Amino acid sequence: MAHFNPWHDVARGEDAPRVVNGIIEIPKGSKGKYELDKESGLLKLDRVLFSAVHYPAAYGFIPQTYCDDKDPLDILVLCSVDIVPMCLVEAKVIGVMQMVDGDEEDDKIIAVAAHDISVNHYNDLDDLPPHTLREMQRFFEDYKALEHKHVTVERFMGREEAYRIVEKSIDLYNETFKAGQATQDTPQSAGVEL
To answer: What positions does the entry give for substrate binding (predicted)?
Structure first.
């Protein structure tokens, strides 16, 4: 029996790569690492973070995208209110954080909630308060340290590079999952790794 899967059955957004739909898995401030279970489409608790850190922004993925790590493209969404898990949010792309997790490239798109007047005036990373990017970098470099895993934030880049990365993930999704075949052909791993 076919079932709804947020990764494959939710649109990525009519104005992608500039404005995309983000599906939030982890609210800002959480120590719980939630992720989409690829097979069931439900949200599952992968683990509680080992370190005394918490997510610096709402965290999730862009539907109908695919990356070399076999997961959809990750997104961090800045918003003045807490965004609950599995909430769909229109997000204006303003940049990207490029990092290496273990030996794999793991890009994180940085965006602002399009319908939040407190943040939607930000158009590029240079517009953000400087501490915002430092906090993101520190979190991602520290959050796996007590698991004896190494993460390196290589660099932050602006919106044009972020657009290119979103477009690349859309192309890879379209190549990997033929129209109408996405749900049946999904790699059956335990969950979307963040």
So the answer is: 33, 47, 59, 143
Extract the annotated binding site for Mg(2+). Answer: 69, 74, 106
CA dist 135 and 113 (Å) reads 18
Write down the pTM of the prediction: 0.89
Instruction: Give CA–CA dist 145/158, Å, rounded.
Output: 27
Closest CA relative to residue 36, chosen from 77, 92, 86 = 86
Q: Which CATH number fits domain 6-178: 3.90.80.10, 3.10.180.10, 2.60.120.620, 3.40.47.10?
A: 3.90.80.10
> Binding site: which residues?
33, 47, 59, 69, 74, 106, 143
pLDDT digits (tens, 9 = 90+) for 9-25: 999 999 999 999 999 99
> Could you tell me which residues are annotated as the binding site for substrate?
33, 47, 59, 143
Q: What is the DSSP string of 91-126?
A: EEEEEEEEEEETTEE--EEEEEETT-TTTTT--SGG
**What amino acid occupies position 163?**
Y
Comparison of pLDDT for 84 and 145, the residue scoring more:
84
